[in-house]
């Protein structure tokens, strides 16, 4: 979904879409690395990692991904309505 939305930004805004995709990919990489580290720790006998902590981490990452996608969708929406005097943009600083 994110990559499809990012493709909607064209021209000078193409770099923004690349940046957003790179950020999302990095979040996924960090999440996977965390899960691998936790698995190694548990195999090694470390049981101090709580399920509550893991649930909180997953929820935080889910919220971050949702925020990234929401901002991208709103940015695309602003770009599509650029020049429309009846449109109320999502961001006050606009899109150039």
How many extended strands? 0
Strand content: under 5%
**What gyration radius follows from the Cα positions, in whole Å?**
18 Å
Q: Compute the separation of the termini in Å.
A: 24 Å
SSE run: HHH
| SSE class | mainly alpha
User: How would you sum up the global shape?
Assistant: elongated
Helical residue percent band: 55-70%
Question: Averaged pLDDT, please?
Answer: 85
Main sheet: strands, sense, barrel = none
Number of helices: 3
Task: State the low-pLDDT regions, or none.
Answer: none
Could you please describe the fold and organization of this structure?
The chain has 96 residues and is mainly alpha-helical. The protein is 68% helix and 0% strand. The protein is built from 3 helices and no strands. The chain has helices at 2-6, 14-43, 51-80. Helix 2 packs antiparallel against helix 3. It is elongated.
């Amino acid at each position: 979904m994110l990559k499809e939305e990012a493709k909607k930004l064209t021209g000078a805004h193409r770099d923004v879409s690349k940046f957003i995709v790179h950020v999302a990919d990095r979040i996924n990489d960090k999440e996977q690395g965390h899960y691998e580290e936790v698995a190694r720790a548990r195999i090694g006998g470390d049981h101090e990692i709580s399920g509550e902590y893991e649930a909180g981490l997953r929820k935080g990452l889910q919220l971050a991904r949702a925020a990234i996608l929401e901002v991208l969708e709103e940015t695309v929406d602003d770009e599509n309505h650029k020049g429309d005097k009846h449109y109320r943009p999502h961001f006050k600083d606009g899109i150039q």
